[in-house]
């Protein structure tokens, strides 16, 4: 018996991995986070027990996993996006380890990746940004020391900010001194869902644009110069003069950037 933590992807049922889909269709028990995972992701399942865990607390979820273990039944524990990013699987894993119940994590497509695809952007461009910071806005629960937005913004890297749209004004205020008023910023609502929508602006005008759209939740903020620029060098990866291990007559140089 194994508990499989499966990343269902950002919303589009086709953005799940082949392995994740196979496990959902074969496990006799499915526990899915119904507030963020569309039921279409479960299509084709043969499970005898399917539970939407959106209204359950941790102890109730662990009780279901223990019951499945007692029956010797594999469990598809389905989370949105990639379960290792804001998936709240850490506390579940801690219980499973204490109980001696085997588990495996199946990666999924992140919301950040879905937003980048929608915006037709590469988040790491030569000479612009080679770093992506994934973070959230600390409102109800504080962030660890050194991880406040103004601390992270000093790097000037591409940044993806979760759970921040209701606090957009505060976020803009923290980013402005480090990115500048003309820095591009996008707010993407429900990327890859049928009702997906987005707005692209600058730190100077994004608040008005988001207000006009009416976005209040289930949105991701992306900020960085990579979002609206053609001024960057070509990657060394496909440069004719660049020699590497996989190109005929090349030197052993694996640094392609």
TrEMBL record:
The record's EC number reads 2.1.1.133
Cite the InterPro entries for this sequence: 4pyrrol_Mease (IPR000878), 4pyrrol_Methylase_sf (IPR035996), 4pyrrole_Mease_sub1 (IPR014777), 4pyrrole_Mease_sub2 (IPR014776), Cbl_synth_CobM/CibF (IPR006362), Siro_Cobalamin_biosynth (IPR050161), Uropor_MeTrfase_CS (IPR003043)
Keywords (A to Z) from UniProt: Cobalamin biosynthesis, Methyltransferase, S-adenosyl-L-methionine, Transferase
Span-the-membrane segments of this chain are: none
The enzyme class is transferase
Q: Which residues form a coiled coil?
A: none
The biological pathway it contributes to is: Cofactor biosynthesis; adenosylcobalamin biosynthesis
This entry's Gene Ontology molecular function terms read:
precorrin-4 C11-methyltransferase activity
Output the SUPFAM superfamilies linked to this UniProt entry. Answer: Tetrapyrrole methylase
Which is an annotated Pfam family here?
A: TP_methylase
GO process terms (BP):
methylation
The Tetrapyrrole methylase domain sits at 2-206
Indicate the family of this protein. Belongs to the precorrin methyltransferase family.
What is the protein name for this chain? Precorrin-4 C(11)-methyltransferase
Q: Which organism is it from?
A: Phytopseudomonas seleniipraecipitans
